């Protein structure tokens, strides 16, 4: 049995559009360490300047992965690319040399590969998957259900997208608005390992690792990581951790401009045009999954690990203290004392006994407990607006749009304790 590695394999550097200028290796490593992540993707590794920065800042670890010397956080080269149908795919590579080689080959299909961290490629998903047959890498669709840039906004099945290169697909990244209960209602997806990743654009612990995968690896090497994702001996995925899907910003069908939410039939009747403001209505992940689902209920294959639903600690603290913003000084103070005392944000979120958290702050302990038990009330997100945690009273006023997700605790999920 190997050691556990909490891993976030999809994020972006400062060279992708709309990201924080603080997305540099030192800040990512510092944020990852505070969060409690052991392994993160570099993101954007086809970008030449970013690759040079990565080479400069990281050293090769004894098993061949990259390591940030100060924090000991491990990195693996990753990149997200956009194909000609605006579908996003995630690629995980063995080394910077492999990234260099892939950059050379994909340059022929891209005008912005040297300028944009998430390059656009003049090729289809099938052509990309086919080209990758000659490369050692892990490959799969990114945030598979989101309405703007995903495989299922464009196609009704993976086979439709990847065609005869279908066997090149190693995993499906679920995205923030979906979980394995959603995805396992589609039997085509049962054979794939699900990745839960943050797609972070800034290094703060409420972004980085807001979704992550817990791997068990015999050694922290690329080959063992690959074995874990392909479900071969040497490693395995033991846990997917992610946002409660209703908190994702594309969970419900909603107007992209004014955020008003619609039932699917209503949106169809309105021809996807918002009667309130004239904006475009975007199909929510939940409705898209319901369209694609061939199973009445999720049916998890034997290899599927448990899925733990959680949200960033700062958001729990802010809500527990009745503060409207997670950047409030008081939120940061409680966050710091919890993380200093118990090791990392992930430890506080899922491992530390509630009684010990109550010694720091009882209100936070109380709310965290209902999170772990899945009894918190949610106002679902949609149209680009994140969902929110709401009080019992607020939820009674809002029925039936909000609901209580129910989940078992981590100990129950993994049969521990
Ligand atoms: Zn993307
Ligand atoms: Zn609108």
What does this structure look like?
This protein has helices at 25-35, 48-57, 96-106, 125-131, 151-154, 158-162, 180-183, 222-229, 264-269, 285-292, 313-321, 329-342, 345-351, 354-358, 362-373, 392-398, 410-413, and strands spanning 3-8, 39-41, 59-60, 66-67, 74-76, 78-82, 88-92, 138-141, 171-173, 193-195, 212-217, 235-242, 254-255, 281-282, 307-309, 377-379, 388-390. The protein is α/β, with parallel strands linked by helices and 417 residues long. It has three domains: 3-246, Metal-dependent hydrolases (TIM Barrel, Alpha-Beta Barrel), CATH 3.20.20; 254-282, no CATH class; 312-413, no CATH class. The strands form five sheets. Strands 3-4-5-2-1-11-12-15 form an eight-stranded mixed sheet. Strands 6-7-8 form a three-stranded antiparallel sheet, with no helix packed on it. The chain has a two-stranded parallel ribbon with strand order 9-10. The longest helix is centred in the C-terminal third of the chain and has 14 residues, at 329-342. The chain is globular. The chain starts with a strand and ends with a helix. Residues 255, 257-258, 260, 274, 276-277, 279 line the site of one zinc ion (ZN).
């Amino acid at each position: 049995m190997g050691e556990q590695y909490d891993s976030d394999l999809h994020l972006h550097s400062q060279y992708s559009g709309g990201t924080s200028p603080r997305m540099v290796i030192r800040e990512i490593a510092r944020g990852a360490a505070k969060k409690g992540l052991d392994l993160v993707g570099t993101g954007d590794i086809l970008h030449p300047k970013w690759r040079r920065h990565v080479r400069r800042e990281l050293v090769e670890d004894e098993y061949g992965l990259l390591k940030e010397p100060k924090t000991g956080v491990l990195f693996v080269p990753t990149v997200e690319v956009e194909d000609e149908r605006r579908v996003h795919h995630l690629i995980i590579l063995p080394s910077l040399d492999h990234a260099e080689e892939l950059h050379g080959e994909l340059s022929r299909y891209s005008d912005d590969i040297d300028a944009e961290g998430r390059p656009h490629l003049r090729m289809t998903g099938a052509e990309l998957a086919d080209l990758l047959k000659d490369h050692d890498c892990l490959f799969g669709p990114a945030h598979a259900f989101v309405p703007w840039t995903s495989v299922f906004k464009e196609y009704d099945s993976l086979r439709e997208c990847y065609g005869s290169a279908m066997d090149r697909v190693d995993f499906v990244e679920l995205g923030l608005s979906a979980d394995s209960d959603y995805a396992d209602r589609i039997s085509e997806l049962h054979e794939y390992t699900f990745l839960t990743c943050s797609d972070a654009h800034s290094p703060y612990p409420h972004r980085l690792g807001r979704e992550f995968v817990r791997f068990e690896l015999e050694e922290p090497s690329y080959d063992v990581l690959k074995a874990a994702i392909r479900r071969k001996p040497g490693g395995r995925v033991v846990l997917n951790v992610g946002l409660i899907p209703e908190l994702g910003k594309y969970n419900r069908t909603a107007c992209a401009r004014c955020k008003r939410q619609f039932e699917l039939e209503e949106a169809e009747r309105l021809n996807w045009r918002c009667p309130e403001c004239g904006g475009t209505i975007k199909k929510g992940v939940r409705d898209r999954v319901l369209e694609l689902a061939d199973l009445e209920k999720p049916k998890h294959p034997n290899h599927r690990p448990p899925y733990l639903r959680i949200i960033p600690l700062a958001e729990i603290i802010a809500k527990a203290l009745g503060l409207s913003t997670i950047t409030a000084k008081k939120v940061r103070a409680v966050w710091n004392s919890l993380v200093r005392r118990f090791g990392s944000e992930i430890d506080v979120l899922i491992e530390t006994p509630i009684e010990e958290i109550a010694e720091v702050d009882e209100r936070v302990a109380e709310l965290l407990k209902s999170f772990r038990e899945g009894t918190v009330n949610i106002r679902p997100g949609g149209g680009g607006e994140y969902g929110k945690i709401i009080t019992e009273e607020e939820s009674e006023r809002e029925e039936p749009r909000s609901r209580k997700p129910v989940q078992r605790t981590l100990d129950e999920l993994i049969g521990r304790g």
